[in-house]
Amino acid sequence: FYTATQKTVDGPSAKDWRGGRTAATNIIPSSTGAAKAVGKVIPELNGKLTGMSMRVPTQNVSVVDLTARLRTGATYEQIKDAIKEAANGPLNGILAYSEDDLVSTDLNGHPASSIFDAKAGISLNDNFVKVVS
């Protein structure tokens, strides 16, 4: 349920105060190296991403909530279509596309690394979008 550093009861944490709070009943904002890792894997994105994590008491799975300002505008429908095409094409087995009303436990054991939730994303306009996977 928890990472090796998360506490089952409130106690001291060498890293930060929040990290010492019990994992079972709290959503805990934390740091993550994921954004830096993306920059190492995709050099064009190096230094262009930042991120944080929320430690949530779930058995498994995690979520990416990506907010982006697009240089070239696209409607949310166009973005969904592109993600669906990638999920059915070159990223098949890695990326999945869903329009179902799923929650975290529905994704346990799913073979894909990331499941795009088409209903969870929003678009402020054609240049500012949030996608959830």
From TrEMBL:
<dbReference type="GO" id="GO:0004365">
    <property type="term" value="F:glyceraldehyde-3-phosphate dehydrogenase (NAD+) (phosphorylating) activity"/>
</dbReference>
<feature type="domain" description="Glyceraldehyde 3-phosphate dehydrogenase catalytic">
    <location>
        <begin position="2"/>
        <end position="133"/>
    </location>
</feature>
<dbReference type="Pfam" id="PF02800">
    <property type="entry name" value="Gp_dh_C"/>
</dbReference>
<comment type="similarity">
    <text>Belongs to the glyceraldehyde-3-phosphate dehydrogenase family.</text>
</comment>
<keyword id="KW-0560">Oxidoreductase</keyword>
<comment type="pathway">
    <text>Carbohydrate degradation; glycolysis; pyruvate from D-glyceraldehyde 3-phosphate: step 1/5.</text>
</comment>
<dbReference type="InterPro" id="IPR020829">
    <property type="entry name" value="GlycerAld_3-P_DH_cat"/>
</dbReference>
<dbReference type="GO" id="GO:0005829">
    <property type="term" value="C:cytosol"/>
</dbReference>
<dbReference type="InterPro" id="IPR020831">
    <property type="entry name" value="GlycerAld/Erythrose_P_DH"/>
</dbReference>
<keyword id="KW-0520">NAD</keyword>
<dbReference type="GO" id="GO:0006096">
    <property type="term" value="P:glycolytic process"/>
</dbReference>
<protein>
    <submittedName>
        <fullName>Glyceraldehyde 3-phosphate dehydrogenase</fullName>
    </submittedName>
</protein>
<comment type="subunit">
    <text>Homotetramer.</text>
</comment>
<feature type="region of interest" description="Disordered">
    <location>
        <begin position="1"/>
        <end position="20"/>
    </location>
</feature>
